[in-house]
């Protein structure tokens, strides 16, 4: 049995960790800086801790999936990230993989529901 | 306290753990983001931007070393989880063995320090000398293990990175890496032939003078076996070799080691150790002292190698038996 107070949040966290990269890539077809990206993801129901998201952006840039540049419009200078050509390709493939995964999980979970009934 | 000063201090602590070439850039970005986060958090809560809000944010952000870890790419494993218990046993067991050998020698042997009168022959004086000598020195063993493990991991990573650069598919895993009990028959036959050749040479040693009469007299004299050894202690080797030969042929025919053959191998190893110890401790083997001492030194090395093989064989036999029992047990 799952201990609600201890294991469940950890399990949910692990589940969300798997979609972290895809959710970040999905919002970076237009340039965003770290704080604005976090706000936008939170607004869409995907809150990501700042301590997780900001290093993730740097790592994705290091892997060649993102490009970045410094820009100062009407405020302090900020580093803006957007998908690189390689990142756009990875985003398309991950989106396709995500679609298959959702279909499979739907079947698995619905079969379980029917069995329980 | 000034919130910006707190953020600057925190950022400095984070980038301290990063490679130098990244520090300036990461510090600049992180500082900018944290300031916006603090401002956003204060605005959401209807509070002023102060030290309390800043500290709350930084506490949630994480310890500087942990944050720096997240900026780095995933590292590599030096000791795999499956190897960790064995590695621990080897490292700590090695220290224990060195201590077990050196401590009695230091306590019971000749006083270890010449020219040191006070307490040199008392147990505590010997213990002190032992501790600052072989006692502490035994830690070279885990150091050597770690060094060779690191070199092995680095070599493997290098080989894998070279392989992935040109090979479209990963190299196939050798069969005996998956099934360690599998016997390589061609190699096994070669080993058997060499073993028989070596055994024949040893058996012919007592008659060396008759089948190699041209050898110089000093060589013949040096390799002359002790008559008592030949009469009482040597013949048992023939029985043992015959048993090992039968075991090895059985393993070659079945193509793999099983729990029973592993147990027999372990038992024969133990008998072999007993025989070799009898040879070493039971009197001279060769008629000349020099040949005798050298041979006994080599035999002791053999005893250690056979003991390791016995432990491996008996452990594998026990594991095999346990697996058979588990498979037969009802669910």
TrEMBL record, chain A:
InterPro entries to which the protein is assigned, alphabetical: Metal_resp_DNA-bind_regulator (IPR052509), Tscrpt_reg_PadR_N (IPR005149), WH-like_DNA-bd_sf (IPR036388), WH_DNA-bd_sf (IPR036390)
Domain Transcription regulator PadR N-terminal: residue ranges: 21-92
Protein's name in the database: PadR family transcriptional regulator
One Pfam family it belongs to: PadR
From TrEMBL, chain B:
Keywords, sorted A to Z: Membrane, Transmembrane, Transmembrane helix
Superkingdom of origin organism: Bacteria
Membrane spanning residue stretches: 89-110, 130-154, 187-208, 236-255, 267-291, 297-315
Name of this chain's protein: Uncharacterized protein
Lineage: Bacteria, Bacillati, Actinomycetota, Actinomycetes, Micrococcales
């Amino acid at each position: 049995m799952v201990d609600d107070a201890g294991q469940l949040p950890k399990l949910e966290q692990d589940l969300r960790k798997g979609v972290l990269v895809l959710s970040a890539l999905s919002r970076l077809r237009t340039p965003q800086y770290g704080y604005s990206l976090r706000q936008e993801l939170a607004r869409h129901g995907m809150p990501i801790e700042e301590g997780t998201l900001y290093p993730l952006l740097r790592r994705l840039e290091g892997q060649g999936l993102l490009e970045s540049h410094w820009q100062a419009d009407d405020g302090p200078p900020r580093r803006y990230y957007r998908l690189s050509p390689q990142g756009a390709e990875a985003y398309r493939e991950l989106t396709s993989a995500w679609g298959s995964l959702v279909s499979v999980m739907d079947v698995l979970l619905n079969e379980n529901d029917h069995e329980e009934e | 306290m000034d919130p910006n000063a707190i953020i600057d201090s925190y950022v400095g602590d984070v980038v301290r753990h990063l490679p130098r070439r990244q520090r300036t850039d990461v510090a600049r970005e992180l500082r900018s983001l944290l300031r916006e986060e603090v401002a956003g958090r204060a605005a959401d809560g209807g509070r002023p931007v102060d030290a309390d809000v800043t500290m709350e944010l930084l506490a949630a952000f994480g310890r500087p070393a942990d944050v720096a870890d997240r900026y780095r790419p995933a590292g590599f494993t030096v000791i795999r989880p499956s190897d960790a218990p064995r590695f621990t046993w080897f490292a700590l067991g090695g220290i224990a063995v060195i201590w077990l050998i050196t401590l009695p020698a230091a306590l019971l042997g000749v006083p270890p320090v010449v020219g040191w009168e006070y307490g040199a022959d008392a147990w505590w004086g010997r213990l002190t000398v032992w501790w600052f000598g072989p006692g502490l020195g035994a830690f070279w063993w885990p150091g050597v293990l770690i060094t060779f493990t690191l070199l092995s991991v680095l070599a493997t990573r290098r080989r894998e990175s070279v392989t992935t650069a040109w090979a479209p598919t990963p190299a196939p895993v050798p069969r005996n890496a998956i099934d360690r009990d599998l016997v390589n028959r061609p190699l096994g036959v070669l080993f058997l032939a060499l073993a028989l050749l070596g055994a024949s040479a040893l058996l012919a040693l007592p008659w060396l003078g008759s089948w190699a009469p041209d050898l110089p007299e000093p060589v013949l004299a040096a390799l002359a076996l002790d008559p008592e050894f030949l009469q009482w202690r040597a013949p048992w080797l023939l029985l043992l070799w015959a048993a090992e030969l039968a075991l090895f042929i059985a393993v070659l025919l079945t193509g793999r080691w099983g729990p029973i053959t592993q147990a027999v191998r372990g038992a024969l190893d133990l008998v072999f150790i007993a025989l070799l110890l009898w040879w070493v401790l039971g009197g001279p083997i060769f008629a000349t002292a020099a040949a005798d001492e050298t041979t006994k030194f080599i035999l002791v090395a053999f005893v250690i190698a056979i003991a390791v093989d016995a432990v491996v064989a008996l452990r594998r036999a026990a594991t095999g038996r346990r697996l058979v029992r588990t498979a037969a047990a009802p669910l």
